[in-house]
Amino acid sequence: MENQSEIVIVGGGLAGLTAAIHLSKHGFSVTVIEKNEFPKHKVCGEYISNEVLPYCHYLALDLEGLNVAKINQLEFSIANGIFITSNLPLGGFGVSRYTLDYYLYQKAIALGCKFFQEEVQEIIFSNNNFTVFTTNEQQFKSKIVLGAFGKRSTMDVTLKRDFIKKKSPWLAIKAHYNCDFPDNLVGLHNFDGGYCGVSKVENNQVNICYLAQYKSFKRYKNIEDFQMQVLMKNPKLKTIFEKSNLLFEKPLTISQISFEAKKIVENHILMIGDSAGLIHPLCGNGMAMAMHSAKIASELSIALLQEKISRTDFEKHYQEKWNETFKSRIRLGKLLSKVLLRPTLSNIIMKIMVLFPFSFPLLIKKTHGKTF
Questions:
Q1: Beta 139-142 vs 265-266: how paired, if at all?
Q2: Which residue has the higher pLDDT, 282 or 342?
Q3: Of 107, 363, 139, 129, whose CA–CA distance to 267 is shortest?
Q4: Of 7, 33, 58, 333, whose Cβ has the fewest other Cβ atoms within 10 Å?
Q5: How many domains does the chain have?
Q6: Which residues have a Cβ under 8 Å from the Cβ of 50 and sit 6 or more positions away?
Q7: What beta strand segments (E) does 95-180 contain?
Q8: What is the CATH number of the domain that holds 116?
Q9: How does pLDDT run across 43-57, given as a tens digit for each residue?
Q10: Which range marks the domain in which residue 144 is found?
């Protein structure tokens, strides 16, 4: 069966859904192909910087109606428990991907976007048009394809993307808990071999999500042992876990998370969100970056469809704008990650920030963008 639309978005995560809403709002025919059902929990820090709010207002998104947790403070600790707190320069909010993605999905449908629960098998570009093939033998033809298939996908393998050829040492674990934790605080706590984010989401639940090196994790029988023997050596995390009750049947995990550089455009497909590149979660800005990349890609897609720019300029401008907006943040995130994984160095950095507390908000600003 063949389907025709102006834009096909492969992947219905945060970036894909945001782009679907933006493009549908402007009257274009949009098809989203997503292999999973909505709603669905995802491994994610579930904190969004307020830099997205003007764009959300432009898209007529009522995120406050989701009972989000409003966050304006950050507490950061290194593995030995030494910590520092700071006001967040812009502030942000906590909301689960289960709630947010489902809300965006419903919003996109209301704007006329079409959704197909399929898995994409192949994408062919020929004669300035795309044909997208799914495992259920459906075909989708379009002028533009946006790749929003997340951190790691079978499509990355199909497209023979460079980063997918390398093994990654990282895995992430996330769950929701009942816990006495401040509504306005996001905690970022270092432990041996990784770091953990803690913050409220809607319905007074607390999201705990951490990134760990696999070589450290594999020494333990299960997640509970790892948390007990490694994470809880940080006194801050020990206190949090001891007073927390797990709300999931079991924590969610995702492995082979790659922070390697990715091509922003592959086979004429514009990559958005995590498909384009990941910032280390310790920077707390991945969700905002996903939405911002969707905005950039959507605006250029409109220009191409209105024949204001050529395909060549469409791809060139996207790469330039993406690098200008995100590249320095991603580079800083990698540097901070390396620092945190070296106890002696992280101790020195922490002592400097304690002596010069104004340096901490400045560092936070460097990993975040301006309102857009």
A1: unpaired
A2: 342
A3: 129
A4: 58
A5: 1
A6: 90, 91, 92, 93, 371
A7: 114-116, 120-126, 129-134, 139-142, 144-147, 170-178
A8: 3.50.50.60
A9: 999 999 999 999 999
A10: 2-166+258-367
